[in-house]
Write a structure and sequence with these properties.
Shape: globular
Radius of gyration: 26 Å
Strand order of the largest sheet: 4-3-5-6-7
Number of strands: 29
Helix content: 25-40%
Largest sheet: 5 strands, parallel
Structural class: alpha/beta
Distance between the termini: 39 Å
CATH architecture of the largest domain: 3-Layer(aba) Sandwich
Strand content: 15-25%
């Protein structure tokens, strides 16, 4: 950018790390649970670990401007690898750890990464399997030594050995490192993050130091984050949100980043850490609420009665108390009793008792789910963002939190709505370019810096809040000209605990139809309580009573859709319950679990056709990918059902 937006002494991550090592030398910076014990490193120790690794990189031949791929789960060592790459004048490129070989090969080849930092043997094996497609890869560094003894170590190096090499050559390497860091400024590339690739190949989003640090600074000040806060790092490191929270905001504010022992222990580790700052996608909060309701169903009649009694009161006054609005003395007293008996123990069980600021984003969250958490006294808010924006486009200020908007523009962000309803923004966080893709860069960002979000929405005149309707590319028209907005309907369907995913079709058609994925945890709990035996997901998904339940949910959603004059034509007329869960490994979803609508429509074209031709059943065969990468297929005969709709007079979109 032409004008400086950052203080000169705090415009790169090496400078921020040096500041933190001096100002907060003994303040915890990163924690990790390993073998059941929490390990902790303060900012002074982190600076030393990063410096040693950066010098080791230089000793191995890492050049300025090189791209360094990082593959693994959330671990302090891998965050330090990103900081060390920056300290050496290189650019970190985190990858999704669960990506298959083809997905990894594309990113590694496209970025031209020479160095790859991996967590363990599994990730090393993935890279070695595709090494013949990666002529640029020269060095592979692994963190966990287990299973690595018999490998050819010509280009394989243990993480701690690279650090040891850096420390041993400090006198020679440190001056070279300082020389590289002196060349870095706010315009230097900070990180390259790949988009989820919902509609095609992922794009490499180039983000500068200004993009990340300015966004981290503004968003931290927005919510008064400080060195006393803490966050749990459990979301994919390749996702821009994790980079902002666990690197950007952490280095700016000095707060502590805690890494769980494993994905399986994440919930228990969340309870132990009790973060004050927390982010999770709606799917997480939906799943958490589903587990709560399952446990309540199994509770004693007295506990169940107390829960429902006090939750009804919490729903009535909890959000007002959170927003500082006037509440009567008796209502406050009853809420405090409820907090002692119900809300406090429940928040503690969920690991959210210390959350001061919580956010959700990525998809719309159900109003009932949103209000449930806020009624407990958890300051859950919504934000709207993109990789290209360095996350933050809008945020909800305290006291202005609503389920139906995504908030006001974040500090430094400008918004405008195009004539076709598409949302555009401009801010210091706007990405530099798509790597090796000037055409897409020009299509997305104009000469004045305005970025097309691809989402349709509008700004409320009274409040200045942004409301998102749907993805602009997904908004279409029904055969009669009325608006078709599938995400609007899908989000209403996913509000029901039994529905994990929904895909709605209807663009250009007379009516809408839907594919449904059941939530296995919720439906399995129901089956257990009702003594219904099943042998597989497929069998449970096809059970007549499950179909009856899903049909009732859709009909309830139809009533809600019918109430919207503009979108009433999007009611679901027919549906089926899919015989398999949509899966990133099968290409049906992105790694961030966004549905690839076009791919799903093409892959299950026979099912879509059957929903529209009036068939009552259809036999189908689907290719699936197993956990070990093998391909197979499953066959099923699916039931297709009609659904009651609410008669309305449709309003045709202009």
């Amino acid at each position: 950018m032409n004008t400086r937006v950052l203080p000169e002494g705090l415009d790169t991550f090496p400078k921020l790390l040096a500041r933190n090592a001096g100002q907060w030398a003994n303040v915890p910076a990163y924690r990790e649970k390993e073998y059941g014990i929490w390990q902790s490193w303060n900012w002074s120790q982190v600076a030393e670990e990063v410096n040693a690794l950066a010098m080791g990189f230089v000793a191995l031949g890492l050049n300025e401007g090189d791209y360094v791929a990082i593959i693994g789960r959330n671990r302090p060592y891998l965050y330090w690898a990103m900081l060390a790459a920056q300290a050496a004048g290189a650019i970190p490129v985190p990858l999704y750890q669960d990506a298959n070989g083809e997905e990894m090969a594309y990113v590694l080849e496209h970025s031209g990464a020479r160095f790859i930092i991996t967590e363990d043997q599994e990730q090393v094996d993935k890279v070695l399997d595709i090494q013949d497609q990666l002529p640029n890869v020269e060095q592979i560094i692994y963190l966990d030594k287990r299973g690595m003894r018999k490998y050819d170590h010509q280009s394989l190096h243990a993480y701690e050995d690279v650090q040891a090499e850096g420390r041993a050559g400090r006198a020679r390497l440190e001056p070279a490192l300082q020389e590289r860091q002196a060349k870095l400024d706010e315009n230097s590339t900070c990180v390259m993050l790949y988009t989820s690739g919902t509609t095609g190949k992922p794009k490499g989003v180039v983000l500068s130091n200004t993009n990340i640090i300015a966004s981290a600074k503004a968003s931290s000040e927005f919510d008064n984050l400080s060195a006393g806060d803490s966050v749990l790092a459990y979301l994919p490191m390749a996702w821009v949100g994790d980079f902002i929270f666990s690197i950007g905001q952490s280095c700016w504010t000095g707060f502590c980043v805690a890494c769980p022992e494993s994905p399986e222990t994440m919930q228990a580790d969340l309870r132990e850490i009790g973060p004050s700052y927390f982010f999770a996608p709606p799917r997480f909060f939906e799943g958490l609420l589903t587990s709560v309701m399952i446990r309540i169903e199994d509770a004693s009649p007295l506990k169940k009665k107390l829960f429902h009694k006090y939750m009804a009161h919490a729903k009535k006054v909890g959000p007002d108390l959170l927003d500082g609005k006037p509440v009567s003395f008796m209502d406050r007293l009853k809420y405090r009793i409820g907090d002692f008996l119900i809300y406090g123990p429940l928040k503690n069980t969920l690991g959210l008792s210390r959350v001061r600021v919580g956010y959700t984003a990525g998809e719309a969250i159900g109003p009932e789910i949103f209000e449930f958490y806020r009624s407990l006294g958890i300051n859950l808010k919504q934000l709207y963002g993109q990789t290209e924006a360095s996350v933050f486009i809008t945020q909800q200020p305290d006291g202005q939190v609503r389920a139906d908007t995504v908030g006001v523009p974040s500090p430094g962000v400008e918004l405008k709505i195009a004539e076709n309803g598409e949302v555009f923004y401009r801010s210091p966080g706007v990405f530099v370019e798509y790597y090796k893709n000037p055409e897409s860069t020009a299509d997305t960002k104009d000469a004045e810096g305005w970025v097309a979000t691809g989402d349709a929405g509008f700004i409320e005149e009274s409040s200045g809040h942004l409301r998102i309707i749907d993805r602009a590319k997904d908004v279409g028209k029904m055969a009669d000209g009325s608006m078709f907005a599938p995400k609007f309907v899908e989000n209403k369907l996913k509000f029901f605990p039994n529905i994990l995913e929904a895909v709605v079709f209807g663009d250009g058609r007379e009516t809408c139809v839907a594919f449904i994925n059941i939530d296995l945890n919720a439906v399995a709990s129901w089956a257990e309580r009702n003594n219904i035996a099943y042998a597989s997901y497929q069998e449970l998904a096809g059970h007549p009573q499950v179909y009856d339940t899903i049909q009732s949910h859709i009909e309830e959603a139809n009533k809600s859709v019918a109430a919207d004059e503009m979108l009433s034509g999007c009611q679901i007329h027919r549906f089926l319950v899919l015989h398999k869960e949509l899966d990133p490994d099968d290409g049906e979803m992105t790694r961030t679990r966004k549905v690839r609508r076009n791919i799903v429509g093409e892959k299950f074209a026979d099912l879509v056709a059957a929903l529209y031709d009036g068939s009552e059943t259809i036999a189908t065969k689907t290719e699936v990918t197993y956990e070990d990468g093998r391909k197979g297929s499953i066959s099923a005969t699916l039931e297709l059902r009609d659904v009651a709709v609410v008669p309305v007079k449709r309003k045709v979109a202009a």
